[in-house]
Amino acid sequence: MRASIGDYVHTHGVTSDQGSHTAEIVEVRGPDGGPPYVVRFPDGRERLIYPGPNTVVEPRHPVD
Do the domain assignments include residue 32? Predict the structure, then answer.
């Protein structure tokens, strides 16, 4: 898995009572764009994550 700052991660929760989560990547700590990532959720919370198999990265959309 590779990501860049500004990309989004989508995690489909298996055990979460809230289902899926989406967060913006604000820091990439692994080599060559790999995990772990510091992400920011829509409510402003930040968390260090190690994405699992139910996580996908959506590249940020370029500004026109």
Answer: yes
